Amino acid sequence: MVKNKLSIIMTTFNAASYVMSMLDSLIAQTNKDFELVVVDDCSTDKTLDIIASYEKKYDWITVYEHTQNSGVSAARNTGLKHISGNLVNFIDGDDWLEPGYVDFFLTVFENTDTDLVTCGFFMDTENGKSKVKTEKRQNGFVDRDEAIKQITKISGTVMGYTWNKVYRRSIIENNEIHFQTDLDLMEDQVFNVEYATVAKKFYLDNLPLYHYVSRKDSITKKFFDIDNVRDVGVANLRVLKTIRSSKLDKDSKREME
């Protein structure tokens, strides 16, 4: 049996004030069967200097630099080109992880036959306050329809984020799934729905292991800005088209049987 290895893709942009917390939380992981691929999207502060200092000390960290600022989607796509693990997830450089984050995902993939695993998360503030996101939903396996329902919900412990999920690299590559670079918002939800429509088995868990830090300058704060209305509308339309196309494919296969 091939041992699972997790490739963690971290994107950074002007995160010098925060990135050490994420890097230190990765160093503190109880399970070391992972690599970290960092893609910096042309930071103008000391982010790269900080990451480079960690790269020199730890052979499981590899850093790539964009030559021009291209956005988080392009950075994640760059990361996907440089991973070696059979499992993959995406984190943000201004958040941080519980010590059991990697071990939780690898344990579930080792002990179950699944294509997507989720964990719960904390909502942190810049001043250090932390609140666990909770939900009455039971942990365990769900079918595709339920997985997509949870991914597209605007609340709960699953939602459209990528940082609380681990994916099979083979499914991403075989289906040519990538992050859409013309979206600045909800690109992660589009990615998740595209993945879910071709994956078969889903394990959803509420165990909080990721700390999402809400910051004043976060792009999600601009969700309702007029400049981003277009992205929200386009993303929702692509989600609906993906779900509809998947349903039509399933109906067509049933008719042929």
What does this structure look like?
The chain is α/β, with parallel strands linked by helices. It has one domain: Alpha-Beta Complex (Spore Coat Polysaccharide Biosynthesis Protein SpsA, Chain A). It is 37% helix and 23% strand. The chain is built from 8 helices and 10 strands. A hairpin with a 4-residue loop joins strand 6 (116-125) and strand 7. Helix 5 (144-152) runs antiparallel to helix 7 (187-196) and helix 7 (187-196) runs parallel beside helix 8 (226-256). The radius of gyration is 18 Å and the shape is globular. It starts with 5 loop residues before the first strand and ends with a helix. The model has no long low-confidence stretch (mean pLDDT 89).
Question: Could you give the topology of this structure?
Answer:
Elements (H helix, E strand, L loop, with lengths): L5 E7 L6 H9 L6 E7 L6 H11 L3 E5 L6 H9 L6 E6 L3 E2 L3 H11 L4 E10 L4 E3 L7 E3 L1 H9 L12 E4 H6 L12 H10 L5 E13 L11 H31 L1
Helix pairs in contact: 5-7, 7-8
Structural descriptors:
single chain; 257 residues; ten-stranded mixed beta sheet; alpha/beta; Spore Coat Polysaccharide Biosynthesis Protein SpsA, Chain A; 8 helices
Which CATH first-tier class would you pick? Alpha Beta
From the helix content, strand content and strand pairing, which structural class follows? alpha/beta
Low-pLDDT residue intervals, each spanning 5 or more residues: none
Calculate the terminal CA-CA distance, rounded to whole Å: 34 Å
Radius of gyration: 18 Å
Indicate the CATH architecture: Alpha-Beta Complex
Query: Helix count, per DSSP?
Result: 8
Pfam family, one: Glycos_transf_2
Protein name: Glycosyl transferase
Domain Glycosyltransferase 2-like: 7-173
Keywords: Glycosyltransferase, Transferase
